[in-house]
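User: I'm curious whether this sequence folds into something compact or stays loose and floppy. Could you predict its structure so I can see for myself?
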Amino acid sequence: MQKNPRLRRIHPGWYAGAFVAVLAIAAQVVYSTGLYGSWRDSRSVDRACGGNVARPELATALESSHLRARSFELDDGYLAHCLVLRADSARNGSLEMSLRWSSTGPAPLEAFPSDITNGFKGAASPLGKGWPGIVRSGDGGAVQVALDCRNDRGKALVAHGRFAPPGFAPSRSTAALTGLGQVTAETARKAAEKYGCRTSGGGKLSDVSAPPVGAGSYRAKPLGQSQGSCAALRDLAPTATPSGTPLAVEFPADTRAPQVNCYLATASQKPGYGLFAFYGATAKEFRTSAAARSLERPEGDLAEDKDSVWATAQCPQSAEPASFLLTRLQEVTASAVTYPAPRSSPDFANTALKAFADGEAKQRGCTDVRMTTQP
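Assistant: Here's the prediction. I'll summarize afterward.
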C-alpha cells in the first residue's frame, strides 16, 4: 500500500505550529501570573546592588519577596549603594543599603550624628550576637556593621542599612528592625568574602532593638547599681552625686560594638553627661565628624573648666586608635537650650572618663590609655 506523500509534508509544519502555540500560551501564563515581573524585579535588585545584598534577609526586612531596586549613580567611591523598594507599591517599605571601605568617607545620610550633645540623641544600641555593629533610631532605624580585615588591620568593610524614603519601614514591628539588622550583617559578611576581607562576623540575629526615642523613654538607675555599659563607673557613685548626676542610663555590655555609650543623669532623670567609646572605622568616622569638630577647644584655650574631655587607646582589632569622650549634655526644647547638670570639676570629669576608658580597654585588650586635649 502506498503512503500519501502529502501527509509527510504536512507533519513538520504541524509540529512547528503547535510548538509556537505552546510557547505563546506559556508566555501568556508567565505574564498573567506575574512570573516575568518577579524575575525582572529580582534582576533589578542584583543589578542595582552589585549582587552584594543578602536576598532572604532583604525579604524579611521589607516583609515582601516582591522587590525592585535602583542604584544611586554617585561618584562616591562606594562598592555598592542602592535603594530597594517593595514592588507591591500599595504597601510601605523601602531600604537603602551601602557598602564601602573604611578609607571612603561616609555619605551625608550615613555620617555620624551631629547632635551627640543633644540629650540622648547620640545613643546607639549594640547589634548583638557577636556582630561589630550598632543600631540607631530614626525613621524606623538604621544599622551599621564594620568588619575589620585581619589581613589588613588598616582596613574595614562598612555596611550601612536604613529604612529610607519614600516607603521607610514596612511596619513598626520588631521583626522589621530585626530583618534590617539581618540583611545589613549578612550583606557585610557576603561582601567581605567577595572582596577578600578575612574577618569574622556574628551569629544569627533574632531580636534587634534600637535606642528609645525621646528622653522620657530612657530608664535611669542609681550609678552604683550599673551592670552594663556604665559598670566601670560604679565606684564613682559617691562623687557623682555631688556633681549633680547620681543616676545612670546604660546599654547592654558588648565587647564587639563599635560604639559604646553611658549616660550620667540628674536626680530628675534628665541628661547630664555622656560618655562614649568609639572603635575601628567608627572611631575614624567620629574623629572627622562635625560632632567632634564642634567639641574641639579653640587653640590656646587653657581654661580648666571645660564641657568635654578626651582619651585614646591602642586596640588589637584595628590600626585605628580608639577614642573616648565625656561631654556635658544639653536639653533642647522648642523654646530654649539648657544644661540640666552643672559643669563638673576637672577632677571628676577626668576621673570619670579615665575609669570608663580603662574599663573598656580591659574588656577589649586595648593598651596605652591616654588622656588627650583633642579627639
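Summary: The longest helix spans residues 5-33. The first strand starts at residue 67 and ends at 71.
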